[in-house]
Design goal:
The structure holds three protein chains of three kinds.
Chain A lengths: L1 H23 L9 E7 L5 H14 L3 E6 L4 H10 L6 E4 L3 H8 L17 H9 L11 E8 L1 E4 H7 L7 H13 L3 E3 L10 H11 L4 H6 L5 H4 L1 H10 L12 H9 L3 E4 L6 H7 L5 E4 L12 E11 L6 H11 L2 H11 L2 E2 L15 H6 L2 E2 L12 H11 L2 H15 L1 H13 L5
Parallel strand pairs in A: 1-2, 1-3, 6-7, 9-11
Antiparallel strand pairs in A: 3-9, 4-9, 4-10, 5-7, 5-8
Helix pairs in contact in A: 8-11, 12-13, 17-18
Chain B lengths: L1 H36 L9 H5 L8 H9 L2 H31 L5 H12 L5 H14 L5 H11 L1 H12 L5 H8 L4 H12 L1 H17 L2 H6 L8 H5 L3 E2 L2 E2 L1 H27 L9
Antiparallel strand pairs in B: 1-2
Helix pairs in contact in B: 1-14, 3-14, 4-7, 4-8, 4-11, 5-8, 8-11, 9-10, 11-14
Chain C lengths: L2 H37 L16 H6 L3 H33 L5 H13 L2 H23 L13 H25 L4 H9 L4 H12 L1 H16 L3 H6 L11 H11 L3 H32 L1
The chains are: A alpha/beta, B mainly alpha, C mainly alpha.
Chain lengths: 428, 280, 291
């Protein structure tokens, strides 16, 4: 009996060793081809990139392309960077991580990439603005953008004859009207803290300067003065949402909106696939969130959702550019747009999703401003601060807190910015 | 006589309580199962909607979940990692636990015991980056490295369990063998190792479960390789902007089966141990 | 073989076992830990270049209100959950170990909570707290919203889910402990008229004290390091009231850019848990000797 047990152990070990040997010889590759590896951070677009990978490899003999779309790509990328195992190209969003990567000098300057001429200047400016201190090069080629504002139930609006509001007052009047009909104007999923940022960003583009964070870093202003109106207006929205919005998460809110429990939902275009999965027949449109007294001041809240960066360590930049050419080809980009309801960052004739109808004029005229939260360091957890603010409804406390936290979490960046200012003072 | 009747009564109460307690498990399980069979369009926010049975009992979700996770390949990787970790853990940790449990008087071994057990309290987040770097430098950024790390991660707890178990195994057993002239090494494998069977089963269950569900270690260590474990593959169902709960739940139900079977086998071993009079 | 050489053999065998295992442990636990400690003196973000900042991170740690709050929350959660889990799982272990029908079935069923992945647990309990509990309260005539939405009560929700999941593991350890209690102890006790609580208090419990202390140490450690349940249920909210220490370390250190600072947090946290656990072990060690 005892012997048998030990024999079993030995057998298992032998099997394992054999399995090890089998796995070991799977990895043989063709030396002739140049290997290009892309890691992109949007797992929801994995199918599209799988297709691109196949098509590219079928049409190219000299380059072999691998695209992975892992979940939690930021963690994966960071751990790969620390072990100096760099992919050739990374697909990331235009947010603070991009700023950090530029600052860490791990991205290659791609200003010599030819396709750059066709990229919408608005998004190139946004990318430029994300650099902590200005640099000479360009490090990201914007691919697609997303837009945030208000999603609304088009059928419900037509049925009741509601008009799209263009000023803050009109928005509040509309909300009152909707409420009078016994319908909930907004649904909020504030249990997931990040959703607190959606209305905040959408109103901030109109109420606060686009470079508010930079001005604060330079010591020119404070958030207490830049964010006051924004904070006060945000609180006015709450009564038009469900009771106790902090009990519901993003998924609850999407489901509720899809089931017609509310007329509007302040969220980005990225939420439409989740909403449609619950109610595939739903007729959704969107409009730009009005936040001030004039219709002219409106601007679309839009940022780089996905852009591609070539790593500094990439050995074969030409091959990488060839891959990018393929990715940015109109027909491929169009496929992505259809798949993800995205907004292209490239100039050209693209067919956009009808859910973006209400935002079309802004996109076409290039009237767009980046998300404020793309400048917030994630460890400061502004989303959680906002949630706290919405629960406690204390504007002054929130703003003071915001300012102190900002100074604390951005200490090194502020010093860097001010050193830069001192060295290049006044040269704007 | 009187004793047995009270015992029977007591057992009945125990049964009733156990059945009542079971409801806290059946309800979540019921929800998991019906969600796994529903379509996304059947998901609602009202109670009657969520508790209702799916419209059709189709296995489509399971089929699709298996496709998305590349089920059989991921299962193979998960099994390989879990089985090897458990086997190595039982061998290595029981040896270590035995050594430390039998040398409680020695300053050196006491120090080693505390040193190893304190490893349990190191937050994984602080080890993550250095480990990612170190395994890559040693060429261990693969599933073998993951197994090695598991053996180290679960060593503190398992060593603690084994040496705790040894307290109840009398030294006299070994001494008898020693009088017969057997070496310590031989005595260990012949007498102590088999006696610790219930503990082996306990350790196997705890270790296997932790490994089976772990996402972080393979995510960090094997990042960039094409190898997936089941939990890694299941990450595909969720992203910030949308989670397909129906597919995810189907997939979780599938991956629950192997570990449940393993547990049921092991728990018999936990039962059959020392009571049989092997020791006392 | 004489006694002397046998003693030597024993010593040699023990060393022969200890050295390679200890080497493995040092290589993959101690060395990376030391590397981590080194990072705690830098402003490292997790990639790119970094500067030495001396003890700045440690000084900051003690003035950071968010870190302080996370310690309070975590310790409160750990104490309450440890007590709840150990009481329930000890009772459950006794129940599952008694002579009942369908023992295998019950043991399997009670083990289930432990295997359900955190996405499933998170979804179901979110649903439970958000929709079902308020509806039940409504039926009884109480007005209530989700406890997970209340900054003062959310920790209770987390405590419930942590307990629900952890009871299985603790029960297994208690059951394996109960197996070491020989039947004749009960028989002898039965003759003396010791039944029920008396039998447990004076016969069973003293014999499973090593397992009790293992469970206490493991529970305290596991709940102090609580992470999965926070991610699944509240992600630190509402109003940052449920940010556990591990959550902060991971979220700000790994996912965010505060790697250096959170390494310092992790180092301090490590020292705190070791201190608590050593105290616990010393305490239960002295109890064991008493009995």
């Amino acid at each position: 009996m005892k012997k048998k047990g030990i024999k079993c152990l030995k057998l298992t070990l032998c099997c394992a060793a054999a399995a090890m040997a089998v796995q070991g010889c799977g990895a043989s590759s063709d030396d002739q081809k140049i290997e290009i590896e892309i890691v992109q951070y949007k797992p929801e677009a994995a199918n599209y990139f799988k297709l691109v990978e196949e098509e590219f490899n079928a049409s190219h003999d000299d380059i072999h392309l691998t695209i992975s779309s892992p979940n939690d790509a930021t963690t994966i990328l960071k751990t790969r960077f620390i072990r100096e195992d760099y992919p050739d190209i990374i697909g990331i969003g235009g947010d603070i991580n991009y700023s950090y990567f530029v600052d860490a000098e791990i991205l290659a300057d791609v200003s010599d990439y030819e396709g750059m001429q066709n990229i919408n200047q608005g998004y190139l400016d946004i990318a430029e603005a994300l650099e902590l201190v200005p640099t000479d090069g360009t490090y990201i080629i914007p691919y697609v953008a997303n837009a945030a504002g208000v999603l609304y139930n088009r059928d419900m609006f037509e049925e009741h004859g509601w008009e799209i509001p263009t000023t803050w007052d009109e928005l509040l009047t509309l909300c009152d009207e909707i409420q009078a009909e016994g319908i909930l104007p907004f649904y909020f999923g504030f249990k997931d803290t990040w959703t607190c940022l959606a209305p905040w960003n959408a109103m901030a583009v109109e109420l606060s300067p686009a470079d508010a964070t930079k001005q604060v870093n330079k010591g020119q202003t404070t958030f207490t003065s830049e964010y006051r109106e924004l904070s006060e207006k945000y609180l006015q929205l709450l009564p038009y949402g469900p009771d106790g919005p902090f009990a519901y998460n993003y998924n609850d809110a999407c489901t509720a909106f899809a089931r017609g429990e509310s007329a509007m939902y302040t969220i980005g275009s990225y939420a439409t696939p989740q909403i449609l999965s619950v109610n595939p027949e739903m007729n959704i449109d969107s409009f730009v969130m009005p936040a001030s007294d004039t219709a002219e001041g409106r601007t679309l809240n839009s940022g780089i959702d996905l852009g591609f960066c070539v790593m500094a360590e990439c050995e074969n930049k030409e091959a990488a550019y060839e891959v990018l050419d393929f990715l940015y080809a109109d027909e491929n980009l169009q496929k992505y747009i259809d798949d993800q309801n995205a907004v292209p960052c490239k100039n050209g004739d693209f067919q956009l999703s009808p859910m973006l109808d209400g935002m079309l004029e802004f996109i076409e005229s290039g009237n767009m401003t980046d998300y404020q939260d793309h400048y917030y360091p994630s460890e400061m957890s502004v989303d959680a601060l906002l949630q706290t603010f919405l629960i406690e409804q204390d504007v002054d406390g929130f703003l003071t807190n915001f300012d102190t936290n900002w100074q604390r979490y951005n200490r090194d960046i502020i010093r860097m910015v001010q050193d830069y200012e001192a060295a290049n003072g006044g040269k704007e | 006589m009187k004793n047995t009747t009270t015992a029977v009564k007591a057992n009945k109460t125990v049964m009733v309580l156990l059945i009542l307690g079971l409801s806290t498990i059946i309800f979540p399980l019921y929800m998991t199962i019906i969600i796994a069979f529903k379509q996304p369009s059947e998901m609602t926010n009202n109670i009657s909607g969520i508790l209702s049975l799916p419209k059709t009992w189709s296995l489509d979700n399971f089929r699709e979940a298996m496709e998305v996770t590349d089920f059989w390949r991921s299962l193979k990787n998960s099994l390989l990692i879990s089985v090897l970790t458990v086997v190595l853990s039982i061998i290595i940790h029981s040896l270590m636990g035995y050594t430390l449990g039998r040398n409680k008087g020695s300053k050196f071994y006491n120090f080693v015991y505390l040193f190893i057990v304190s490893g349990m309290f190191v937050p994984f987040a602080i080890l993550m980056m250095p480990l990612a770097k170190q395994t890559a430098e040693l060429g261990l950024a693969n599933w073998f490295g993951v197994i090695l790390l598991y053996v180290v991660f679960y060593m503190p707890m398992n060593v603690m369990l084994y040496s705790g178990y040894l307290v109840n195994i009398p030294l006299a057993l070994e001494e008898a063998a020693r009088v017969d002239g057997a070496s310590t090494w031989r005595t260990y494998w012949k007498i102590i190792f088999p006696i610790m069977k219930p503990m082996h089963a306990t350790v196997a269950v705890i270790t296997a479960l932790a490994v089976w569900n772990d996402v972080m270690t393979p995510l960090v260590i094997m990042a960039g390789s094409s190898q997936n474990t089941l939990p890694l593959a299941q990450l595909n169902f969720q992203s910030q902007f949308g989670t397909n709960y129906n597919l995810a739940f189907a997939s979780y139900l599938l991956s629950l089966i192997p570990i449940l079977i393993f547990y049921l086998i092991c728990q018999k071993q936990i039962l059959n141990g020392v009571v049989n009079g092997a020791v006392k | 073989m004489n006694i002397f050489s046998q003693k030597n053999d024993r010593k040699r065998t023990f060393l022969f076992i200890t050295i390679p295992i200890l080497a493995l442990f040092v290589c993959f636990n101690t060395i990376p830990l030391i590397r981590g400690v080194i990072y705690s003196f830098t402003n490292f973000r997790g990639f790119g270049s970094y500067d030495w900042v001396g003890f700045r991170n440690y000084a900051d740690l003690f003035t950071d209100a968010r870190v302080g709050k996370s310690y309070l929350f975590t310790i409160k959660l750990a104490i309450v959950t440890t007590i709840v889990v150990n009481i329930i799982s000890l009772i459950l272990a006794l129940g599952l170990n008694s002579k009942i029908r369908a023992k295998g079935f019950f043991r399997g069923a009670y083990f289930l909570p432990n295997i359900l992945g955190s996405l499933v647990v998170g979804y179901i309990f979110n649903y439970f707290f958000t929709y079902i509990v308020p509806a039940l309260a409504d039926m009884v005539g109480l007005q209530s919203t989700s406890i997970l939405a209340s900054p003062s009560k959310a920790w209770i929700g987390i405590m419930i889910v942590c307990s629900w999941q952890a009871i299985a593991m603790n029960t297994i350890i208690y059951i394996s402990g109960l197996q070491t209690v020989p039947e004749d102890v009960y028989e002898a006790g039965g003759l003396d008229g010791a039944t029920g609580w008396k039998q447990f208090r004076h016969l069973t419990f003293p014999l499973i004290i090593p397992f009790f202390s293992i469970n206490m140490v493991l529970s305290v450690k596991n709940f102090l390091m609580v992470f999965d349940q926070i991610m699944a249920l509240t992600k630190g909210g509402p109003a940052q009231s449920t940010e556990s220490i591990s959550y902060l370390i991971y979220n700000n250190g790994m996912a965010g850019g505060q790697f250096g600072f959170q390494s310092a947090n992790a180092v301090v946290f490590f020292i705190v848990i070791v201190a608590i656990s050593v105290a616990q072990m010393k305490f239960s060690g002295s109890k064991e000797e008493q009995l």
